[in-house]
Every structure is written in C-alpha cells, then in structure tokens.
Design goal:
The complex is a heterodimer of chains A (278) and B (285). Chain A is mainly α. Chain A has helices spanning 5-38, 44-48, 61-92, 97-110, 114-128, 135-159, 163-171, 176-205, 208-211, 231-240, 245-277, and strands at 51-52, 57-58. Chain A has eleven helices and two strands; from the N terminus they run H-H-E-E-H-H-H-H-H-H-H-H-H. A two-stranded antiparallel ribbon of chain A has the order 1-2. The chains are: A mainly alpha (278), B mainly alpha (285).
Chain lengths: 278, 285
C-alpha cells in the first residue's frame, strides 16, 4: 500500500515543525527559568556589594571584576597572535601540505575540551612556572584556549575577501603588507571581530579551565598574581556546595545577561559592517 | 616613508605566526609527554580495560569512565541529532528565509550559554523529574545525556542548516517540477546532497558532548561504576580529571594526564572524520 504524498507531506510538516518548536521551547525555557528566578535577586547592591559568608549573603562585586579581568587578559594576548598567524598563513604562504597540517592541528586544538586546557594550565602555569592560582595563570590558559578559534575564524574571514581586491591593489604597485593593511584586513574585519567576540563570550562562561588556574578567592585582586573568582566559578561553587540557591540564580542571571550582550553586540557589529560594505 | 622593508615585515609576521603555532603544538606535546609514558608504564590494557580506579592504592583502570563517556555521548546523540537535524530541515525548507535568518542566530546564541547554567538546570529541574518518574537518584546517565543532547543542539542545527542551504536551488526546482512535494524533495534530493555536512555537524556535536565537563559533573552523579541502566550514577573521563585534579600528585596526576591523552585522541579521531565529511561536501560543490 502506498501512502498518499499529501499525507506524508502533512506528517513531515508536523514532525519536523514539532521538533523545531520543541527545540526552541527548551532553549527559551532555560533562559526564561534562570532570568525569572534571578531577576528578583538582582539589584544595584547585589552587583556592587562584596559577598558575605562565602557568598551566602551579600553581592558579587569581586566576581564581576574577575569576569572582566580574565577574558580581557586572554583577548589582549590571543588577538594579536591569532590575527598575525592567520594573515601569515593565508597571505604569505603557499597552500602546501604544511599549511594543511597546521590547519588540521588548530582545528583539533579548537575542539579540545576545556578541562584539558585547565589541566595543562594548572600543571604548567600554576605549578611548573610557579605563578600560583592567579589572574595571570587563568588569563594565559584562556588565551591558549581561544587562540585556535581566533586563528580559525580570522583565516576564514581573510579567505572570504575576493581575490580581485588583492589583484587591484597589487596592480597599483602596492606591496603585500600594504595590501594586507589597506585592503585585506579592513574587509575581513567584521569576521575577525565576530570571532573575537565569540571568544570573549566563551571565556566569560568558561569554568573548567578557570577554576584550576585562577583559583576561587573572593577578595578583590590587587595584582595579576592574585587569585580571583569569575562569575561562572562563583555560580558553580554556590550551586554545587548548596550555599545559596537565591544568590546562585542571581549570579546565573547576571552571567547570562553578560554573555548574551557580548554575543548580541557581535552580531550587531557584523551586520553593521556588512551593511556598510554593500 | 617605509620604516621596515617588505621582507622585514614578512619575517616578523612569520616569526609571530611560527611562535603562536609552536605554542599550540607544545601544549599538545606537553600533555602527551605527561600522559603517554604513564600509559605505557602502567600497561595500555590495564589502563583502558581494568575497572579498578583506586588512586590511593595506585590502581588506575579507567574502563568505567570510558564506558560512561561513551554512553553519555551516545545518549546525547540520540536526543540531539534527530531533534537538531529535523529542526535544520524545517528551518531551511519550510520556513521563509526572513524568519529563518532570525531563528538561526537565536539558536546559535544558545551555544554561548555557559555550561554550568545547563548543569544547574539539570540539577534543579531535570533530576527531580527523573527521580519522581523513573526512580533512582535522579543525577544519572539519563540526566547527563538529556542535558548534553540539548547542549549540542545549536552546533548540530547551525552546521546542518549551512550544508542544507549549500545544496543548489536547481536540485530542488528539478524535483518540484517533477511534481514532488517538499517532503519528497527533502528525503529524495536534499538529504542526499547535504548528507556529509549533516554527518559533520553530528560528529562535531559529539566532540562537544564528550568534552563537556562542568555540566556533566553537576548532573551525572559521579560514582565510578560501569552503568547497568540509564538511571545509574556515572563518572565520565572529563569529570574524572576535574574532580581529582586539585589534590592529585605523582602517579595519580600522571594518570589524570593519561585520561586527558585518551580524550585528546578521541577528539582528534572525531575531527578527522568531520573534516573528511566536510571536504567531501566542498568537493561535490
């Protein structure tokens, strides 16, 4: 017996549409749940007060500072390295077996679980180099963690710049470096910036790589060699040790809002650049 | 005026690029160097297939964790792959482009939600539901699979949509012109043309699931045992590293690095499959 195509079509719409709806509902539920439970806790004093009693009471001010400092340090280190590497790989080298191996290597490193970077950072920066649990160890660990992603996204953005742009520049007598500086980079900028923003988002939410390298001190850091605690780590500790569900929700809501803001501005920037160009 | 010659620029860029790449490769070497000697000293077979994990007595068998990681990842795939692929087809074939262009970034945004938040939802919402309806401790293989399945959805959907949209419009038009419905076009034409990209999306999702740490620690229960049912508490490879790292020394620490090496190898294998699948797609285009 053959089922009429009309019925299979209707069934397909129902099943595929249902799956899409379910996906969206789950994702909306997760954000909605955290925001709904977290919003009542949020207030100016929650954001600007120091935590009391291990975070059972008080605010989350030091963890906001930690969340700003670690990704900042990571991005300051990883961005120039990443962009230069991708420029060199795509503009100054021929496509050889070597560049293919490098690309595969960075791909693999981009997919490596963050806990392995945490393990590396802990043994290498914290113990072997003697930096201890500190902003420096955490920032360096995050930097090597996001470096492959930045190389990868920048390279894609640079490759997407049409070849003819470069040819025009060369035909005007420009050198490779002038072409890179004046033509390739400006045109690849939105893609590069998006990659950086996504890396910032990833470092803000990262826990596994941070908790073992930056530690979890709740005091305000006074130097890069001081331990600090990010919002993600604070939230993890509050939730896991059952210290305060209320403050955990509040921290999670702040964290989600921060991450969403970073990512939304990434999309906004990208769209603005695209609109400007066309 | 030129301060540095063209050749000088090239040399500087080359040096920076070379050092950045060497740092990354050195990290890989560092991990291998800490872990591999241990695996060979302890015995590959003993390490991989013994169920005895008692660091105090120098017994390091990671078989329970390997089983747990595989089951959790498999469970995540059972949930994430069908939902994600179905969603990708619906969004790219049935929904108007303008709406799809709003929903796709929204779903991608969800990949940015910190994994601890997913874990927390698992603890607060999912675990009680499992405990009440199916019994067991709630924090279990099943809870971890569901949470990971949700976490890989954005990856699966976003990459699948890209590969479905890469199928030339003329293929669809040809099929529709022959009188096929949208569904018939999907399963006779589009699925075949975008298969490798969809497989790549699932493999990359698997990579994310097997490497996830914090969410899994929160919902999987973490007891070292080979699971007999989906309701058992399990400990994955990643959780094993994270739970014991802060106090491990000597042999124990090397064993954790060795666990990392195993994860590393699994990720490299998964990535090779994914890049083969993606290359197939681009060659076809």
């Amino acid at each position: 017996m053959r089922i009429s195509p009309r019925y299979t079509q209707a069934a397909a719409v129902a099943i595929l549409g249902g799956a899409t709806l379910l996906t969206l509902l789950i994702l909306i539920f997760i954000i909605g749940f955290i925001l709904e439970k977290g919003f009542p806790v949020l207030s100016l004093s929650f954001l600007t007060d120091n935590p009391e009693d291990m975070g059972r009471a008080g605010g989350i001010f030091p963890t906001i500072i930690g969340t700003l400092l670690l990704p900042l340090l990571a991005i300051i280190i990883a961005t120039p390295l990443g962009i230069v590497t991708s420029v060199y790989l795509s503009e100054y080298t021929q496509e050889t077996r070597m560049t293919k191996i490098i690309r595969f290597g960075t791909d693999c490193l981009a997919g490596i679980p963050s806990i392995i970077f945490g393990l590396f950072g802990y043994i290498f920066f914290v113990i072997t180099l003697g930096m201890g649990w500190s902003i420096l160890s955490g920032g360096l660990t995050l930097a090597v963690m996001v470096l492959p992603t930045i190389i990868r996204t920048s390279e894609e953005a640079i490759r997407a710049v049409p070849k003819s742009f470069r040819e025009v520049s060369f035909s005007l007598g420009a050198t490779s470096w002038q072409t890179v500086k004046r033509v390739v980079l400006p045109n690849a900028l939105p893609g590069i910036v998006t990659g950086i923003m996504l890396s910032i988002g990833r470092s803000i939410g990262e826990t596994a790589a941070v908790i073992f390298t930056a530690g979890s001190s709740l005091r305000l850091p006074s130097s890069v060699l001081d331990s600090t605690r990010t919002m993600a780590v604070h939230f993890y500790i509050l939730a896991r040790e059952g210290l305060s569900a209320e403050n955990a929700y509040g921290t999670a809501a702040t964290l989600i809002i921060a991450v969403l803001l970073v990512n939304l501005s990434a999309y906004w920037l990208m769209n603005r650049f695209i609109a400007k160009r066309s | 005026m030129k301060l540095i010659s063209e050749k000088g620029v090239k040399r500087i860029l080359g040096t920076v690029a070379f050092s950045a790449i060497s740092v990354l490769f050195l990290i890989a070497l560092f991990i291998l160097n800490e872990g591999l000697p241990f695996i060979f000293k302890y015995g590959v077979k003993e390490f991989l297939f013994s169920s005895d994990w008692q660091p105090q007595q120098n017994k390091f068998g990671i078989f329970p964790m390997i089983t747990a990681s595989l089951w959790v990842t498999f469970g995540a795939m059972l949930i994430g792959a069908p939902l994600g692929v179905a969603g990708a087809f619906f969004l790219s074939e049935y929904v108007p482009k303008t709406i799809m262009k709003i929903i796709k970034p929204t779903i991608e945004l969800l990949a940015a939600i910190p994994s601890v938040v997913y874990g927390f939802i698992g603890v607060m919402v999912l675990a009680p539901i499992i405990r009440e309806n199916f019994g067991g401790p709630g924090l279990s293989l099943m809870a971890a699979s569901i949470i990971l399945g949700i976490m890989i959805l954005p990856t699966v959907i976003s990459i699948s949509i890209d590969s479905i949209l890469a199928v030339p419009q003329s293929y669809r038009e040809g099929s529709l012109a022959l009188g096929a419905t949208t569904w018939q076009t999907i399963y006779m034409v589009t699925v075949k043309a975008s298969k490798s990209g969809i497989i790549a999306s699932i493999i990359l999702g698997l990579g994310r699931a097997i490497g996830e740490t914090m969410a899994v620690i929160m919902v999987a229960g973490n007891s070292v045992n080979i699971p007999h049912s989906a309701l058992d508490s399990v400990r994955t490879l990643t959780a094993n590293i994270a739970l014991e790292m802060s106090y491990a020394t000597g042999l124990h620490r090397q064993a954790l690095f060795a666990t990392g090496v195993i994860l590393f190898i699994v990720i490299i294998i998964l990535n090779s499959f994914a890049s083969v699948a993606i290359r197939k797609r681009t060659r076809k285009k």
